[in-house]
Design goal:
The complex is a heterodimer of chains A (111) and B (114). Chain A has 111 residues and is mostly beta strands. Chain A has strands at residues 4-7, 10-14, 19-25, 32-37, 44-49, 55-58, 61-65, 71-76, 85-91, 100-101, 105-110. Chain A is globular, with a radius of gyration of 13 Å. Chain B has strands at 5-7, 10-13, 19-24, 31-37, 44-50, 53-56, 65-68, 75-79, 88-95, 104-105, 109-113. The chains are: A mainly beta (111), B mainly beta (114).
């Protein structure tokens, strides 16, 4: 079945440093979504990318969908303590209706 | 309420018992999903409803797990003969539009099987 891997698994940064997480799918995705889960919380939708090579920005967050629609990345510029949490990518295998979530990247930000 | 509501928030049960977990989706959302999340892992798909019917139940681990959504709104996930390995947070999510719509998650039901 489809596998969605993310690297790194963990990342500790100093506040103000940049952060990037990478998402790789074993199959082509019709779209990819990103979610953030704070410690003890539930996943919260951040963004959806649909087009090959698409880039979207939300303030300090930049999301990119690969040309082959099998990978994606999330880049955070100048991290803040409010960015702490686990970031998941998710995509529908084979264009189906269910979302397969990635393994997640846990971000910790130290002052 | 405005969001997805799940009850109970916490359930402790003994091995072999039967449990039911309830999900009340956002009004108007026709798609409803159940996921299971173990500590340190991503949500694992269990089942997806479009309306009243289970459109995809390929993620249910075995026949001890069953879910219903009789009126196309509230859904119940049922687990028979619980095992310690069933311990996890069970997340429900709803979506206005399947396939391309964002998922709105509830707070989850934490199940602990002793």
């Amino acid at each position: 079945g489809q596998q969605v891997m993310q690297i790194p698994q963990y990342q500790h940064v100093q506040e103000g440093e940049d952060f990037t997480t990478y998402c790789n799918s074993s199959t082509t995705l019709s779209n990819i979504q990103w979610y953030k889960q704070r410690p003890g919380g539930h996943p919260v939708f951040l963004i959806q990318l649909v087009k090959s090579g698409e880039v979207k920005k939300q303030k300090r967050l930049t999301f990119q969908f690969g040309e082959a629609k099998k990978n994606s990345s999330l880049h955070i510029t100048a991290t803040q303590t409010t960015d702490v949490g686990t970031y998941f990518c998710a995509g529908p295998p084979g264009g189906g209706n269910k979302l397969t979530f990635g393994t997640g990247t846990q971000l910790k930000v130290e002052l | 309420g405005a969001g997805v509501s799940q009850t109970p928030s916490n359930k402790v049960t003994e091995k072999g018992k039967y449990v039911e977990l309830r999900c009340d989706p956002i009004s108007g959302h026709t798609a409803l999903y159940w996921y299971r999340q173990s500590l340190g892992q991503g949500p694992e798909f269990l089942i997806y409803f479009q309306g009243t019917g289970a459109a995809d139940d390929s993620g249910l681990p075995n026949d001890r797990f069953f879910a219903v959504r009789p009126e196309g709104s509230v859904s119940t996930l049922k687990i028979q003969r619980t095992e310690r390995g069933d311990s996890a947070v069970y997340l429900c999510a709803s979506s206005f539009q399947a396939r391309t719509g964002e998922l709105f998650f509830g707070e989850g039901s934490r199940l602990t099987v002793l």
